[in-house]
Amino acid sequence: MSRAARWGLTLLLGAVVVGIALWWTPSPPPRLPSHLVQYSSSWPGQDNIMRDELRALGSNAVPALVVILNSRSWGDVQWIRRVREKLPSSWAKFLPDDSNSRWKRQSTVWVLGELGTNALPAVPALELYRDQTPHLDHRASAIIALAKIQPHDSQARSNLAALISSAQQTERFYAAQEFGAVPIPTPEDLAPLLAALSDTDGEVRANASISVAQFGAWAAPAVPRLRQLLTNDYRHVPVGAAYALASIGPEYIPESLVFMTNAIEKQLFFAEFIAPLYFKTAGTSAVNVLPYLEALAEKNPGRWADRAVVQVSPHPTEKAIRRLGDLVELEPSDLELLGSLGAAAQPVVPRLQRIAEKSPYATIRAAARRAVERIQADSK
Prior knowledge:
Layout: H1 3-24, H2 49-57, H3 62-70, H4 78-86, H5 89-92, H6 99-114, H7 123-132, H8 136-149, H9 154-164, H10 169-178, H11 191-196, H12 202-212, H13 223-229, H14 237-248, H15 253-265, H16 271-282, H17 290-299, H18 304-312, H19 318-325, H20 332-340, H21 349-358, H22 362-379
Helix pairs in contact: 3-6, 6-8, 7-8, 8-9, 8-10, 9-10, 10-12, 12-14, 13-14, 14-15, 14-16, 15-16, 16-18, 17-18, 18-19, 20-22, 21-22
């Protein structure tokens, strides 16, 4: 064999070896877009931009989320955790901690649930996680996520019902908190949630009332109990009950409105959290407190009261519309609200156009574009 032939054969064999090596090398794990690596859970009914961005990816987000769910850090290693537990805190802080990775996994479980049926490929990983995690709160989160992803699966719904009636407060807490985000096929399926309004634990009662608010008129059988909860002595049960009543029907707004405004005035626990949800639900049915909200917006500009003034006013002033448009963090629901005002929102169009061009979030850009289109169409 000539020298040239030997070199040719060597190069060919080298190419084959490299090809085989590349073929056997595993593909890098799927990753989320860089702006979506940080996300966290939110209550039913709340805006959540990161959640909406992941929803926009649909099933394409699932492989990367499953990788995160299955990932482990040095802090998760069992012997390291045991050593940390036995060391003084001044020494233990130098060892890896599992708290961040645990939080990330639980947030990932929640996000998968929020993807709904798009996350069906993640069901096996979630079931394995549910069965193997030693943490009650993580197990509860997985059961809830599986019920969101499989709304027509009788076993998934049964597991959720068992969770909300569990002897463990932790399980009931999470089930009551998230029940409002689970697709429910019939009003009768609300029975476990309505029963939780009488739970012996105040946190569970409060969570249940906020979840009840997500089902509107379906929750009408809960009205007598919710009226009782308006005067409950546990910290944020009354504001949750007021929110739930307002969601069931406008006829319940006058009585719930008194409790809501009193809670805001007295700065009761959770009042500032529930108020934006309450007034979004109540809308113009809460017009009687418009002067109060306007005074509150003047006193604390740039916060939820600016939004509430526009929501409850049948004919918002230009000043009120501008103040809403000037909020630093405009949520998708704010953009939808501005768009619904039509020509009256023309003064904020320049801001909305900037958002439509420059926001890093596709869902926000799209919402801003829709708002501008509605405003300009009505202005012609």
